[in-house]
Design a protein that fits this description.
Number of strands: 6
Mean pLDDT: 81
Oligomer: single chain
Number of helices: 0
Strand content: 25-35%
Number of domains: 1
Radius of gyration: 13 Å
Distance between the termini: 15 Å
Low-confidence stretches: none
Helix content: under 10%
Strand order of the largest sheet: 3-6-2-5-1-4
Shape: globular
Length: 84
Amino acid sequence: MVVDVITDLTGLVRWVDYIPVKQTAASPHIPNSYDADGAMELDVLGDTTGLQAGLDYIRVYEDAAATIAWSTNAGGYIPVNIPS
């Protein structure tokens, strides 16, 4: 998944304007699954110039305080592995 990690949610709507994600502590990182026992691997963009959100990349917000994975709650987050 190619993403732009945003830090300001002003005026944005969860699951509409951005996808809530949370870095997983699982090691080693394994592919995401419907029972949330893995993590989606992210390719983070450094520059979005000339690209269109939703077509060329997806906007995500890393919510470190999130506690419920998306598989158990529609208001939850997607577990991810964000490369360092």
